[in-house]
User: Fold this.
Amino acid sequence: MATTFGFFSDAALTTPLAARLLFIQAVSSPTAVDKVVYFGSATASRKAMANSAPGVDPVVISITDAAGGSGSPASDVKLALSSGGLASATGGASLNLPAEINSGSGGAIAIHIRVLDSTHAFGLNNDLSLTTNTLAEFSV
Amino acid sequence: MIGAYPLSISPIASAALNSASGVAALGISISVVSPVVFDSSAGYIRWAPSVAIGGVDVSSRLTGRISISAGEDSARIATLDLVPPSVIALQGYEGAAITIDVTLFRTGITATYRLFTGIVERQAFAPSSRVASLSCRDGYQERPLACTSAADVEALFAGLAYPAPGILPWNAAVPDPAAYFSGLLETFPGAVAIDGNGLWHAVPWAIGTPAASFTAGEIFHESVTLKTAARADLPSDIHAALVVRGARLHAAEVALTWTEPNFSNYILDGIPALPKSTLQSALSGIREWVAKGAPVITSPTPGTYGPIAGVYHIVTEEGARVLAHSFAGTYYRRWYQQIEYEYTVTIPMGGTSSRDESIRASLVSTFDSSSWESAPSAESGTAIYSANAPTPAVPPTGYEGLPTPWPPVNGAIDHLPDLTAPDLTAAANHVVARAVRRAAAGRRKRQVSFARPLDPRWEIGAVLAISADGIAATGQVAELTHDLDLDSGLAESSFTLAVPEGAGSSTGFTASVTAPTPTVAHVLPAPALGNHIGYSTATLPNPPEASLQGFLCNVLPTGLHYDAAAPAYEPQFRIVMPEVPALHRDPLTLTQPMTASVSLAAGSLAITF
Assistant:
């Protein structure tokens, strides 16, 4: 059974992000655009952990590039757990979440995303995505 | 035979709980665009919509118009027409997730924007044309409803609303997140909306440097309109009042003393001596006042007094035990007074309407004043020592046995134990915030609208400027509409800018209230307890009744000073305790100014003919 954990557009986890998250960047002299999404599960009494070592290894969100060498590089994206953390985040670096994440709005984790284009080439680049490590989901 | 078997513990118990696994993913699209695509100079631009319903691209099935509209504090709505490929597809639209993108093309340039993310609310199908008209909505109403805690709702305002549990409580037993959201929204100096990506935003009302300025060549001809605020939106003043209800606790005490008449009165007039039982009965009959410690009642010294004209007054040992010679005691009274502090602030709106608006909220302390007032002192019970009581290091005040708090003797305190200073500050901020929002919302009714070629760059809250058709204005986007007509090729964006009057660049305030310290000093007159003898030549014919306190008795007909025409008294020991003045007894309302500084964001507007 697929995990119920995923990305949502609100802290109350009412609206799953079913479509790609679109960032607009000016071709010349772009300015960084920040957005906040929420990671969690709207299903009651669930807990997510890293499948590699549940409760020990952290849940990790990585920036994956499906078309290395074309489109946007992963380094154009920064992740942080707070808006203030974006300033010191490294482009393309993965983001560690807690080892155990509870479902429900109380367990939702805000993921701050900053995009700053480095390609300076017109187009719509769909090659990047945020991906978690393999999650093991438990009833609690 | 008993065998030995190895014991093994398997992780089966925990493995059984592992009910799902997998990877969660979120795609990121980066649309690199050039502002040239929005350039209104000579040339042409092409556009193409991209609509996905339930993850299926239905762009090729579109027909007619696509319209998307958004506004402050309301849902983003989209309508579109399409020709469904099958009955199954048609039946699957309702409730499905939908995204609407648009890509603009100009020579060598493309730009993709997301205009809408939401769900298909309902559909209307015309069998003759096989066109389905879909009405779509974002999750604006659902977001607050799904909140399970006050913190969840407050997060929707990015910490910029002003919760006040004393005024707007969150009921954890029966949560009503929609009502809590509405209450908080009234305090938010800004607007909430969901953008084209489906992300919730709390946008402060602030008008700074415009992100873009459009001249007449960039705006559709004759699309500029100006609408001023209605008189009803602009009262003369907005008054905000925070009423804090609590109890003022008073304490007062008086000293009572009395000494029996001179022995000559017993001899010459034959008046009776006062039994202790009569005195104690009178003392215990005092209402609302309580003895502080034990009153001291002394007995007359046994012996023979006189003679006067050969007559003696004799006090026997037995008689001394039951007769009163003097009395001294302190009596206290504590009572509460309902008190209201009304903190007020006025925001001048400068409107042409003579009407004023009022915002009022109350904080109420739940302290049980009645119980505090009526609980007797534990020291009023039976004393422990009959003689030689130990001397305490710190002399007792006499109030130790009473429930706290103890107001100062002959003074008062305002007691609101369940309303802390942070509660008071939060309530003041809540009330002023409501007034500020109402003031700002009224001024934001002055609006300038215009339309231009499709421009999806701007969301609710963006600051834009225009200068066209004699109108030069800078304001904040309060409403927007995108219209795409696949038949005619029309691609238009309409914006309504809030252009409030004033001079500020942001909407906000500071407010503070300080609880005053009451200055109350009670000077209640102690009753003068004397000896009043009736049927006497010395009895006053018309004495003020209030002065007749203490021992009341009469001369015997055989007495030296007997006067049958003089007033006679009912024998008694009379005590009338002082009344509490109405000023310190009746409910009291005190008006206190609230310190507040208010700033309302303002746009700019100039009209030339």
